[in-house]
Design goal:
2 helices; single chain; mainly alpha
Length: 90
């Protein structure tokens, strides 16, 4: 019985580590997609947390904060599971 418990514990640990690695990989993909989106923006204020050429925080002046026009990805929640899947498949 003790051997079965040990095997079950090891399997649980391995599955937990695999899930953590998948989460980390997804987080890295989200970051990469956000960086690509910001890099593709032609101006200096794609996201509220960016700074303009004068060194001021963009805030409400950012493309992200305005309706219409550019819609850059600025936050991990902006990246959909479909975007992550497309990134993995290319």
């Amino acid at each position: 019985m003790r051997g079965i418990g040990l095997i079950a514990g090891v399997l649980y640990l391995m599955l937990s580590m695999a899930a953590a690695a998948a989460d980390l990989a997804e987080e890295q993909i989200r970051k990469a997609l956000i960086q690509q989106s910001i890099a593709a923006y032609p101006g200096s204020c794609p996201c509220p947390y960016n700074v303009d050429r004068a060194g001021r925080q963009c805030g409400r002046r950012s493309a992200y904060s305005k309706q219409g026009g550019y819609s850059p990805l600025c936050y991990p929640a902006d990246v959909t599971p479909e975007m992550v899947a497309r990134y993995r498949n290319r």
